User: Fold these one by one.
Assistant:
Number 1:
Amino acid sequence: MPAAEAEVVTEDAERFSYELSFHVLPTVAEGEVSAVFDTIKAAITGSGAELFDEEAPERFDLAYDIVTHLEGKNRKFSSAYFGWARFTSEAGALASITEVLDANTQVLRHMLVKLTKAEEAHPFRFHEALQDQKKVTTVEESTVVPDFTTVKAEEPAKEVEAKAEEVKEESAEVDDKELEKALEEKEV
């Protein structure tokens, strides 16, 4: 059939949402990490994909050491810069994105996943989660009970027993107060 008679198909290929997560080598200077991230984003948009969300790389300690062959030697890394980018793309464009990332010597490793609708609607912010995890919580003094099971050589046994009784009475008072409060709330 001649080319003039061929039917022209102009349907848009179906686009899906993807997330590309990556580790940048810790040997990259901190000021250069944003440039590496820009080259990754350029590889994504250069393939015809559209970025819709991202988290810039930040340095953190890895859960385990990663060994990679770099500059003719096996090198072990215990930290890296982690970041991710979300985009919509045709499935055929993914190969060109992964080729660019495989060729980039500043990327330690990367992973590309297809997102579900729920994952697309509710992105997990890794660096925010790390910050929340680092917050310190303190224990109220009223819940701390001293340990009187060990006796010092210079303290008589009667003094130790007296201190233990005081602690029991204090904890009993707290329990009574909490019990009364709970009963009042239940009656309301």
Number 2:
Amino acid sequence: MHRHPQASVGNIEIPPGFQSNNGCVNCTVPSEEGLQVVPRYVRRLGDGKVEMLAGREVEESVYVTQLYLTPDYSSPSAEPMPPWFFQLLCGPAVGFNVLASALYALDQWAVHAEVLRYQENDEERRVIETEVAELTARLAVLQERLDNGRARLEASEVPRMLRNLEGRADIPCGA
């Protein structure tokens, strides 16, 4: 962290827990004058979010936002993600924690937030895939039960026993 306890910018002291922005966050917040300004003071929350203060007045409102990585499309071609990076990003927690810690230390807040978000989305995808697989298996078992029950009803000639109900499929339930 780059904050000094007694530090100040102009006549405004850096609030406890905050640090000078120094390019960590490039979004804007409203100032007390009604202008949109880049925040002077920021506090990293560790979950991809950041608290921000305009830093123009004492007792300002604190703004919270989710950080997003802004890709640089000026390069003619971005390289595909190398396998080692993808393995750290999507692999076991130990490897991901090494990656996340290294990114946190780089002081690239938006990059760190994007990696955290990717891992969170990947984990949610895995949970949903597991749920879908379980539901698919349950559906297959249920369909097999239905098919077997229909075959038993047909083989037992139950419809022939109740031929007098033919054409009465419109009878309301519970009648």
Number 3:
Amino acid sequence: MKRLAAVLVAALAGVALWIAPRRPAPEPTVNAAGSPAASPSIVPTPHGPAVIPLTLPSGRVLQTEVMVKDEDRQMGLMFRPSLPLDHGMLFLFDRLDKHGIWMKNCKFPIDILWLDEERRVVHLEEAVPPCTSEPCPVYAPLRVAAYVVEINAKQARREKALVGSVLQFTLPDAALAGR
């Protein structure tokens, strides 16, 4: 009898998994070589990505979402109607690389900044438009980078965040472990 009950429970669990709604896997974040981006060792808060202040060279401070997990980096700014002027997004990676960024399902243009380990801007793409047809172009820096920052279009030039300038931010303690 116990064996029959165990078989029935296992069968019902299998049916429940089979009929459960399935979410499609998100598109991979890729680096310039076309391989999946590495997953950093930082663990975001249970309520979503951490938010930290990031200071631009002009002195303007942005509230910046820190994208650590693959699924957060893959989602990025997709499907958002806009980005408040005092906000940005910071992508962290485990290793230096020519991390590629695309604009699939984005609704507005942005500036994309690639930073080295010293947080110096090594490449800038200004006013990158949303992708309107497939295949979406991938934007990649000319030099390797440790971080990518996304801000509103034309904000980089206005706030003096140009190649060679330094952005200031402090990562949460968890971010420093293993980097």
Number 4:
Amino acid sequence: MEPNQANRCLLRDNGDAPSRLGLGNRTSRGKAMNRNRAVVRWLLLAVVILSFSAASFSQIAVGLSVRVGPPPLPVYAQPLCPGPGYFWTPGYWGWNDDGGYYWVPGTWVVAPVGMLWTPGYWGWGGGFYAWHAGYWGPHIGFYGGINYGFGYTGVGFVGGEWRGGAFYYNRYVTNVSVTSVTRVYNRTVVVNNTTTSFNGGEGGVAARPTAQEESAAHEQHTAPLAEQTQHEHLASQNRQNFASENHGRPAVAATAKAGDFSGRSAVPARAAGGEYHAPAMSPKEARVGSTQANKGNSSEGFRPFTKPNSTGTGSNNRGSSAPSSSGNNHKPAARASKSNPPRQNNSRPAQQHKSSPPPRKQNAPKEEHHKGR
């Protein structure tokens, strides 16, 4: 080969090397850009999801208020805990603008490690009944002093506790099998037996947050889990869950797992917590708009923590305590009247349950010593 030809070949070869190197760099840069774009897309998607979740949670927390109070809590037994790590979330009365109050069954969900569930509650204030949504947090906050049972005595939670990364169950107030759940203990719980489902106002629970609950309110909270939200939605789709249909005694009062309303999972209510009275207005008339609710007619706003004159605090493990009589008046606040006592049962006592704004005094419920299962 001639020298000139050799030089040309050398130059051609040297020219190809940078070209191949540039192609490799462009390929690497392309892959990196694709990865970055994918990360950005996932981040944007996460932000959107969190924004919708936060907006929905915020709307439930402060934007729902009605003119009629919820029925008493029904009497029901707790389903067997499905296994380790499950946490009990008690049932409550939800609200639908078309059908009014409907029962959201209590259920077991897998808890975020180290987190405890503070139930939501209805509270009287500003002339309306406002819903305060539940949340997950490191400590139990204020839930209106409502006796949801099964460890929720009205203050705190005595159904179990976290020890490190494992949850231990108090068998005295929770239905667990030592065959499937080995982390258990047995601690006596003294309970007051009530069925009142709201805080403040006449017939409501007279409870104010403790210092610990106030502190817990300022901690970082997590919204209900996706399965809890879905569970509530499914409950709202079944007409049998509405108080207008079941008169305070839902056919499905609790389920073993969230969203599972099948016969093998569902537990019916043993009795209504008090006599049911249909509201004198439609759900749409009872619903309060956000603007009107924010104005209210009292400086109390939606925090029903000013001390009412009526009492009704208590705690109870649903399904196994001595009976007592009670009643309920499920009429608009301005039309409240005395009600007849409901049928007695051996599952859980009921309590005088009214929903009228002017508070009146009533005797505190008798304390009883609860026996375990």
